[in-house]
Design brief:
With about 260 residues, the chain is of the alpha/beta class. The chain has 11 helices and 8 strands. Strand 1 and strand 2 form a beta hairpin. It starts with a helix and ends with a helix.
């Protein structure tokens, strides 16, 4: 394992009935498998904690929200089982967010790529700054956004998801993402965004937990098969990442 794969972490702070879940990686908050596993477990634990009424998902730093999959880990995958396991990490996070009985508020301070778009698509209400452009770059490295696709399609619709998936090197603006339903609110600055997040949190903490749980079930109705669906998608990506095309494409991206 490279140093980059071993780096990164997830932190949790619970204060006044709010769980603040933050992930970090020095390479633009990219997500190695180890960080994905901890993120999924942390969200699940928060959902089971009676002290928690609302969850806020955020990343560290002031720039990129999430650069998606760790290229260092992707390029090291040499067999189907390892490939499926890595992409299952994204599936597990999405499913943990889907099944969590607490509402999850997203805080997107900067650009989101690939799996980062998947995370933003899987929260229940998403705040962003005007710098939070989005891109699904998977096809450009020979894979395709198979695992995050259902979550992205659920928020953007098939048209919006296919736009990002096909034009894989093109950034779309935060305004574009808001118009299509990925972001609920966008702000000029992170400070303004945080004020709005705090205001919504105060409303939700004072709301009926059972009502919020039932409301979330309504929001996610029709996704009951995602445990199996995302596992199948992880296997697809795990197979594709083994191809010579993908290995060469990922190598080129790493050198940029």
């Amino acid at each position: 394992m490279t140093d980059a794969v071993q780096q990164g972490d997830v932190s949790l702070e619970i204060k006044d009935s709010v769980a603040h879940v933050e992930f970090f990686h020095p390479l633009s908050n990219s997500l190695p498998g180890r960080v994905l596993a901890k993120l999924a477990n942390t969200i699940t634990e928060c959902g089971e904690n009676d002290e928690v009424k609302v969850i806020v998902l955020r990343s560290a730093g002031e720039r990129a929200f999430c650069a998606g999959a760790s290229f260092d880990e992707l390029i090291s995958i040499n067999d189907l089982a390892t490939g499926k396991k890595f992409f299952s990490g994204f599936a597990n996070v999405i499913n943990a967010m889907r099944k969590c009985p607490k509402l999850i508020i997203g805080r997107v301070q900067g650009k989101a790529v690939g799996g980062g778009v998947g995370l933003a698509s899987s929260v229940d209400y998403c705040f962003a700054t005007r710098f939070a452009d989005v891109k699904l770059s998977e096809l450009a490295v020979g894979i395709g956004p198979f695992v995050v696709g259902p979550a992205v399609e659920r928020k953007l619709g098939l048209s919006g998801m296919s736009d990002l998936a096909i034009n894989a090197t093109q950034w779309r603006s935060a305004s574009w993402a808001q118009e299509r339903g990925l972001y609920n609110d966008i702000f000029e600055t992170a400070e303004e965004m945080d004020q709005a997040i705090d205001a919504l949190i105060q409303q939700l903490v004072a709301s009926n937990p059972e009502a919020m749980k039932l409301l979330k079930e309504v929001f996610w109705k029709g996704t009951e098969n995602w445990d199996e669906l995302l596992a199948e998608r992880a296997a697809l990506s795990g197979k594709l990442v083994l191809s010579d095309f993908s290995k060469q494409a990922i190598g080129k991206f790493k050198k940029k």
